[in-house]
């Protein structure tokens, strides 16, 4: 960065900047001078930062007074910028004093200021004077309107330089990026030529164009001897004696002369007493969150929330740093928790009994001191509503253009690039602590970005092969034994209950219940007659069912011995359900008649029916229905005295139950219709075996009854 | 004691041990009874049968040689899913824990004298911890963590959705919690009574033993039911933990103050990540290793750049790296395991 003035000159220049920017309570002043290396180029010469400060680092805190701190800060920022650049060039780890700033110490306004140092501007004029150019930027967060005619495509400081006119740019982020290339944080920027250079002033609030204010700024500069600002600065009123503070003196003078009150009406339209509390520092590269957030202070809270969300969503990475800020604020608001909790304190909180409550909100170990040392009191008054309304109209327009130009704006690109350079270089600053065992080098190499980042397939073809085997397959190796034992225990694993009294058993109860429920449900589906859901009923019904089954088995065994099938007087017909009826030739059917039909073929059976009319009228009207559900397959076995159309009716009943029959095996023997029907669930929910049984039994008995009455 | 130089490379900063078997589990001892230059490392074989072994090796920084100790090898029928030494220097002897079908504690008895060369050290199984009272079998354990603050406590994670907290001194279950909806894959202690676990249900949950009724979900994988496989809690800065997802090249860095929103995703691996370890001596560094055969050391920036985070350092191995351990005792050493090799890397 060229035009290095003599120290004295620099000192004086900076002091003047300080006076100017502080007298109007703006955030920073930058002085752009012409480059000695490249004619016609404006570049950073000096600046004074008067904005918010995040972390203050000093060697000896007591050494400086408040005003001195401002100068010190500006110096530190400049040092940091150089340091970052140097590190980037040489990869050397600069020796840093403990008081030096690190990138993480900066507030976002400071970032803005820092990044400004990397900009240069074409002046738009082919010649330059050797005299200095001062640029003051006033940057503001609330938009008013652009005073620019926008006719020229020269960036702002350069334009001010070439035109010789001052430029007052409000709501800089909304401005055409051709006019102002750094439209990120600065909202109102004023540039005017000064001593053949450009002075740029910015403040973190909205300020409408005010010639008085401008005049005031100029006056501040003019009141200082111009000679002393020249390159030849021979004598300086306050010399290098920094202990004596020039700014204070000047402040009084200037403030008295002009009177800050005069400017209040102007400042009012900004109305921002709250500075960058909603700022997401890290979102800056991709967004303009701070600016937008502040817009909405005018009342559009909804939009604000949305913007916040968007900025969160758009740059999740950025929350790394911004979240602590936000959390801090949240907890301020909600709990009134004292800010500035250190990490240690946070964890002490966790030591308290309400750990889980603390986790989401109270980990606000932010070391952020979001206050301005130099501006303990903002003089801004609440918004003038009339003006604000006007501004809202402007705001809408501005927003539109801004949103559309955000992604590809040159300014954003530059900002992003600069940031990534700075951040990329900051890594070696905090190198991994290593033990100083000098004779051994690292096995690791510096990571290099590969141009073609092709996803690499593991040799085995299965990603995370061994990890998955360890987590999924190995447990199954011994899990099989584990599961087997579980089953032997009746499917209910008595979980270990600890000896400790305060042991929380509800979890186990819950798990047990879940397992139990599953088993009960399974049991329920096996027992046809169960209609209730509670466990006691299911179990008692099951007991009854088992007894019934035993009885039937006995009957079946005794019946087998009978050569003649005398069904009269027999209470029940035999259960001849067969669950594996691949063999259609049912051995029990003496006449070997069987019909294997699908649903369509059922008509054939019906037509056959009259020929087979050998019904014994005196038969019991009992129907024996057995339903078995195995997974999705339902086997229904029906044994019933034959009636006309009975088969059809049963099929219909099955159909009504949302069952899709795909295999029907029926035969008639000794006046008994035996039907084995396999089907699947058609509908959504499975029907219980009991329901099916009931429905078919109902249908059959209805048929039998009606047939019986007809016959008699 | 046998001296075995198998696999040692005459490289100043890289040492390879060739095991007869594929290696998965691995652990550095925290016991510095030996001289500073001695590392004690346990490796567990990964064979899909019942003939697995755990070997305890030592590495001498003076002679730059691995030593195997036949007396310190023992059978471990099922592959150990994790090995870990007692986290702080015990009075003696050194203790090793292994998980798998059970949680087991092994005691490593040094030789008679302080000079371990004079008589042979040995290993005995100190206890076998089964968290199932009624069954001779324990629900399979996927991982465990030994509480560094309160070494009486070991937490195990199991496929039966529970985490069990053991009092290993008394050999009893302190508590057992149903931690997740699905298999629990990893567990990590934060402080004496606080642990976190990851699961096939895709969530990271924090538990406080003082309030067992509640757990806090601090992260859920973006696609529901993407299992989270491993978890590492930053012991230097307990605000941060890291986890990895199934079939993902990302290391997800979580800040427990911002639940559900990861503060960073480290995605420069070119294949899935298998293991992660925070630096024991720095709050801002983490190492990850994956199927791309790379071990990457990352520094978490205070301010994330716009293009994501690049790793600082990289090491390329011969094949997929399955395991990664960062020595707490000598933090300038990292051990990785790939195939049947274990390598010591100088950071």
Automatic annotation (TrEMBL), chain A:
BHLH domain boundaries: 500-549
Gene Ontology cellular component annotations, sorted alphabetically: nucleus
Pfam family, one: bHLH-TF_ACT-like_plant
Major subcellular site: nucleus
GO molecular function annotations of the record: protein dimerization activity
InterPro entries: bHLH-TF_ACT-like_plant, bHLH_dom, HLH_DNA-bd_sf, MYC/MYB_N
Sections of the chain in a coiled coil: 539-566
Gene3D superfamilies: Helix-loop-helix DNA-binding domain
Record field: transmembrane: 111-142
Cell compartment(s), UniProt: Nucleus
Keywords carried by this UniProt record: Activator, Coiled coil, Membrane, Nucleus, Transcription, Transcription regulation, Transmembrane, Transmembrane helix
Official protein name in the record: BHLH domain-containing protein
Provenance organism: Coptis chinensis
Automatic annotation (TrEMBL), chain B:
WD-type repeats, residues: 177-217, 266-300
Superkingdom as given in the UniProt entry: Eukaryota
Keywords: Acetylation, Repeat, WD repeat
One Pfam family of this chain: WD40
InterPro entries: DCAF7-like (IPR045159), WD40/YVTN_repeat-like_dom_sf (IPR015943), WD40_repeat_CS (IPR019775), WD40_repeat_dom_sf (IPR036322), WD40_rpt (IPR001680)
PANTHER family noted in UniProt: WD REPEAT CONTAINING PROTEIN
Protein's recorded name: Uncharacterized protein
């Amino acid at each position: 960065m060229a035009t290095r003035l003599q120290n004295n000159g620099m000192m004086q220049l900076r002091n003047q900047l300080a006076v100017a920017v502080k007298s109007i309570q703006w955030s920073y002043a930058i002085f752009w001078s012409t480059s000695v290396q490249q004619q016609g180029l404006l570049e950073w010469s000096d600046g004074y930062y008067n904005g918010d400060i995040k972390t203050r680092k000093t060697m000896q805190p007591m050494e400086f007074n408040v005003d001195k701190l401002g100068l010190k800060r500006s110096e530190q920022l400049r040092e940091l910028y150089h340091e970052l650049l140097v590190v980037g060039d040489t990869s050397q780890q600069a020796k840093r004093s403990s008081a030096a700033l690190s990138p993480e110490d900066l507030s976002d306004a400071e970032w803005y200021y820092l990044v400004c140092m990397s900009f240069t501007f074409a002046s738009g004029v082919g010649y330059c004077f050797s005299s200095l150019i001062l640029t003051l930027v006033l940057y503001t967060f609330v938009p008013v309107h652009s005073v620019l005619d926008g006719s020229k495509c020269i960036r702002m400081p350069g334009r001010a330089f070439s035109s010789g006119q001052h430029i007052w740019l409000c709501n800089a982020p909304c401005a055409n990026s051709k006019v102002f290339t750094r439209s990120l944080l600065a909202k109102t920027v004023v540039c005017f030529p000064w001593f053949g250079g450009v002075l740029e002033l910015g403040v973190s609030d909205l300020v409408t164009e005010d010639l008085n204010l401008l005049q005031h700024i100029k006056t501040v500069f003019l009141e200082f001897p111009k000679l002393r600002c020249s390159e030849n600065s021979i004598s300086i009123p306050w010399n290098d004696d920094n202990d004596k503070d020039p700014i204070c003196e000047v402040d009084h003078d200037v403030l008295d002369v002009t009177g800050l009150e005069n400017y209040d009406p102007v400042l009012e339209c900004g109305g921002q007493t709250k500075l960058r509390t909603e700022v997401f520092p890290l979102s800056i590269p991709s967004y303009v969150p701070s600016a937008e957030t502040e817009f909405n202070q005018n009342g559009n809270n909804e939009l604000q929330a949305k913007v916040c969300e968007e900025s969160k969503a758009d740059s999740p990475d950025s929350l790394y740093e911004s979240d602590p800020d936000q959390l801090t604020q949240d907890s301020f608001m909600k709990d009134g928790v004292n800010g500035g909790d250190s990490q240690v304190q946070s964890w002490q909180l966790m030591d308290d009994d309400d750990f889980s409550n603390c986790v989401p909100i109270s980990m606000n170990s932010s070391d952020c001191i979001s206050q301005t040392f130099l501006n303990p009191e903002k003089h801004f008054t609440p918004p003038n509503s009339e003006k604000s309304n006007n501004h809202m109209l402007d705001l809408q327009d501005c927003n539109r253009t801004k949103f559309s130009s955000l992604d590809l704006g040159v300014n954003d690109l530059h900002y992003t690039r600069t940031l990534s350079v700075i951040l990329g270089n900051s890594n070696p600053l905090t190198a991994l602590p290593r033990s100083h065992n000098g004779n051994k080098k690292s096995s690791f190499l510096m990571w290099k970005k590969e141009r073609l980042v092709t996803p690499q397939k593991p040799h085995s073809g299965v990603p995370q092969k061994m990890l998955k085997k360890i987590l999924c397959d190995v447990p199954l190796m011994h899990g099989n034994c584990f599961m087997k034992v579980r089953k032997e225990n009746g499917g209910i694993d008595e979980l270990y209950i600890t000896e400790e009294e305060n042991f929380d058993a509800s979890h186990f109860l819950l798990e047990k219940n879940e397992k139990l429920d599953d088993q009960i449900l399974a049991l329920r589906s096996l027992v046809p007659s169960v209609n209730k859901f509670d466990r006691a009923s299911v179990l008692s019904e099951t007991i009854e069912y088992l007894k019934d089954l035993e009885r039937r088995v006995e009957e079946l065994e005794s019946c087998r011995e009978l050569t003649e099938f005398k069904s009269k007087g027999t209470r029940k017909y035999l259960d001849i359900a067969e669950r594996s009826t691949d063999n259609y030739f049912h051995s029990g059917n003496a006449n070997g008649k069987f019909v294997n039909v699908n649903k369509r073929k059922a008509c054939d059976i019906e037509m056959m029916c009259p020929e087979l009319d050998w019904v014994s009228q005196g038969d019991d009207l009992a129907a024996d229905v057995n339903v078995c559900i195995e997974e999705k397959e339902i086997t229904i076995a029906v044994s019933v005295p034959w009636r006309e159309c009975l088969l059809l009716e049963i099929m219909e009943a099955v159909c009504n139950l949302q069952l899709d029959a795909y295999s029907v095996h029926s035969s008639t023997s000794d006046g008994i219709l035996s039907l084995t029907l396999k089907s699947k669930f058609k509908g959504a929910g499975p029907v219980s075996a009991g329901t099916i049984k009931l429905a078919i039994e109902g249908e059959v008995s209805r048929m039998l009854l009606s047939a019986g009455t007809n016959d008699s | 004691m046998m001296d075995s130089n198998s696999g040692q490379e005459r490289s100043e900063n890289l040492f390879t041990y060739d095991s007869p078997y594929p290696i998965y589990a691995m652990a550095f001892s925290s016991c510095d009874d030996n001289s500073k230059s001695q590392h004690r490392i346990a490796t567990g074989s990964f064979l899909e049968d019942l003939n697995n072994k755990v070997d305890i090796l030592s590495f001498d920084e003076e002679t730059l040689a691995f030593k195997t100790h036949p007396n310190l090898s023992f059978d471990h029928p099922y592959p150990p899913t994790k090995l870990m030494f007692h986290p702080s220097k015990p009075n003696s002897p050194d203790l090793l824990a292994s998980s798998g079908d059970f949680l087991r504690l092994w005691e490593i008895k040094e030789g008679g004298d302080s000079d371990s060369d004079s008589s042979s050290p040995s290993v005995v199984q100190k206890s076998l911890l089964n968290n199932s009272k009624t069954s001779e079998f324990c629900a399979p354990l996927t991982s465990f963590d030994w509480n560094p603050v309160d070494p009486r406590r070991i937490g195990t994670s199991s496929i039966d959705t529970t985490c069990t907290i053991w009092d290993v001194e008394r050999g009893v279950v302190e508590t057992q919690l149903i931690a997740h909806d699905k298999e629990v894959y990893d567990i990590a202690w934060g402080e004496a009574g606080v642990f976190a676990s990851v699961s096939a249900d895709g969530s990271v949950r924090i538990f406080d033993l003082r309030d067992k009724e509640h757990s806090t979900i601090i992260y859920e994988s973006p696609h529901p039911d993407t299992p989270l496989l491993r978890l590492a809690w930053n012991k230097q800065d307990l605000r941060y933990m890291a986890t990895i997802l199934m079939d993902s090249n990302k290391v997800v860095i979580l800040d427990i103050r911002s639940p559900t929103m990861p503060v960073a995703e480290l995605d420069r691996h070119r294949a899935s990540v298998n293991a992660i370890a925070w630096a024991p001596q720095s709050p801002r560094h983490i190492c990850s290793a994956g199927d791309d055969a790379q071990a990457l050391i990352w520094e978490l920036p205070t301010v994330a750049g716009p293009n994501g985070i690049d790793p600082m350092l990289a090491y390329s191995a011969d094949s997929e790296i399955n395991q990664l351990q960062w020595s707490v005792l000598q933090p300038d050493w990292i051990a990785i395991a790939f195939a049947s090799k274990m390598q010591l890397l100088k950071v």
